[in-house]
């Protein structure tokens, strides 16, 4: 694709949809403003108090595992959560996108890279994200005394956001050019032996890259993987042994 190609999204992506109905922050209750954040394409509800964004999207994360010269491309996160840790370029699927379209967009946003998708590589279901769920359950009796958390709709929203599906595509660079986007501080290529497993951002990244390394060492042909990540609580993300994952290879 030449440099004159227009990467601008269709005008429908700028449509506010229901976002203007979001008047208050889901995290602190502060009033919101409606703007398109830097590096994004859609109108968002942004809290004027804490600065957090209320996203309206399906809780599906899509991204690319990019191969180039026998290396993989990783981005160092410049935002929370997992600030300063490494990840594949990935993010939430937008309403109206296919999984592949979302993965390509996220790669462009986070690594300024145009990619060609080769095939799906992994689908990982994570029933409960993080340790917040157990904390919520443990303190549920006390939450009735907190006005914000007394709202059952707020609790349902939290619990829903803790369930995610990751779809990662195998991809290659169309051109050997990449650089950090607004949410990344670095973008680097790593050989299999250089992948920083102790500094990866999320359990999904640890599992995905572990499966990729396993495939490459077993014959160099990546397979499709499907599985569920059930994590033990209060363990390091980088400890692969904590994931009770049932992985099916095709």
Q: Beta-strand level of the residues, as a percent range?
A: 25-35%
Task: Compute the number of strand runs.
Answer: 12
Structural class: alpha+beta
Mean pLDDT: 79
- Main beta-sheet annotation: 9 strands, mixed
Q: What is the CATH class of the largest domain?
A: Alpha Beta
> Looking at CATH, which topology of the largest domain would you report?
Nucleoside Triphosphate Pyrophosphohydrolase
By CATH, the superfamily of the largest domain comes out as Nucleoside Triphosphate Pyrophosphohydrolase
Runs in which pLDDT lies below 50 for 5 or more consecutive residues are 1-16, 130-161, 238-242
Q: Based on Cα principal axes, name the global outline.
A: globular
Portion of residues within helices? 10-25%
Layout of helices and strands:
Layout: E1 32-35, E2 44-47, E3 53-54, E4 60-68, E5 71-77, E6 86-87, E7 90-92, H1 99-111, E8 115-126, H2 132-138, H3 140-143, H4 147-150, H5 152-161, E9 164-173, E10 184-190, H6 203-218, E11 225-228, E12 246-249
Parallel strand pairs: 4-9, 8-11
Antiparallel strand pairs: 1-2, 2-3, 4-5, 4-7, 5-6, 5-10, 8-9, 11-12
């Amino acid at each position: 694709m030449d440099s004159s190609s227009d990467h601008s999204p269709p005008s429908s992506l700028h449509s506010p949809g229901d976002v203007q109905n979001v008047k208050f922050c889901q995290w602190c209750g502060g009033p919101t403003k409606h703007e398109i954040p830097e590096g994004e394409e859609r109108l968002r509800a942004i809290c004027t108090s804490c600065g957090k964004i209320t996203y309206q999207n399906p809780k599906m994360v899509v991204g690319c595992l990019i191969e180039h010269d026998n290396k993989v491309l990783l981005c160092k996160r410049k935002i929370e959560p997992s600030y300063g840790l490494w990840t594949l370029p990935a993010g939430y699927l937008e309403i109206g996108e296919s999984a592949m379209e979302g993965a390509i967009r996220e790669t462009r946003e986070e690594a300024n890279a145009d990619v060609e998708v080769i095939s799906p590589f992994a689908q990982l279901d994570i029933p409960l994200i993080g340790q917040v769920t157990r904390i919520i359950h443990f303190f549920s009796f006390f939450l009735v005394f907190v006005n914000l958390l007394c709202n059952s709709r707020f609790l349902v929203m939290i619990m829903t956001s803790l369930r995610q599906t990751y779809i990662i595509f195998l991809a290659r660079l169309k051109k050997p050019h990449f650089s950090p986007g607004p949410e990344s501080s670095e973008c680097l290529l790593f050989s299999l032996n250089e992948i920083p497993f102790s500094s990866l951002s999320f359990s999904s990244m640890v599992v995905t890259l572990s499966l990729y390394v396993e495939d490459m060492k077993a014959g160099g042909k990546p397979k499709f993987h499907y599985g569920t990540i059930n994590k033990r609580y209060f363990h390091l993300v980088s400890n692969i042994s904590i994931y009770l994952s049932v992985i099916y290879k095709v």
